[in-house]
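The following block was generated as part of the benchmark described in Methods. Ligand: inosine-5'-diphosphate.
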Amino acid sequence: SRSSNADFPGIKERTLVAVKPDGVQRRLIGEIIKRFEQRGFRLVGLKMLQAPEKLLAQHYVLLQKKPFYSSLLHYMTSGPVVAMVWEGHNVVRSSRMLVGDTDPAGAAPGTIRGDFSVHISRNVVHASDSVQGAEKEISLWFQSAELIDLEGCDHSNIYHL
Ligand code: IDP
C-alpha cells in the first residue's frame, strides 16, 4: 500500500535560496538550479527581481550592526537576484552543504561558493541557515500563492512514497 508523508519526516521542509547579483551577472543561474535539481530537491517557487532595500533590510536584520552591512545592501541591490524556494528531506542542511562556507576561501571545492567565488563579499548565492530562518525568509520573499503546493509525480520517483 502507498505510504504517507508521515513516514518521511522533513520531506516537506523548505528553504530559501537566492542567486545574488554577481551570480546572475556571471550567468550562473542555470548552474545553481542544476545542482539543487540533480540532488533531488523540488523547486516550488522561483522569481527574478530587483530586491527592494526594505526587503533586504528585513532579510539581513541580524547583520545590521556589522561593519559590512551597508556594502552588503549595496551589493545585493547592484542587480537582479533570483529567489527560489526548494523543498525536500533536510533541504535546509543540505543546501548549506551545497552552497559551502560563507567565506569562499574556506568553501570546499565542489560547493557552489568553492567552485565559483573567491571573496566573502561576492559569494554568488544565499541559502537559509536554519529551518526557522527559512520559514521567515520564505515569507519575506514570497506570498503563499506564489508557491507550488501540489504533490508532483516526482515524489514517487525520488522518495518511493
Ligand atoms: P551566509 O550567507 O553564509 O549565511 P552570513 O554570515 O549570514 O552568511 O552573512 C550574510 C552575507 O553577508 C554573506 O553571504 C556575505 O555576502 C556577507 N558577508 C558576511 N560576512 C562578510 C564580511 O566579513 N565581509 C563582507 N561581506 C560579508
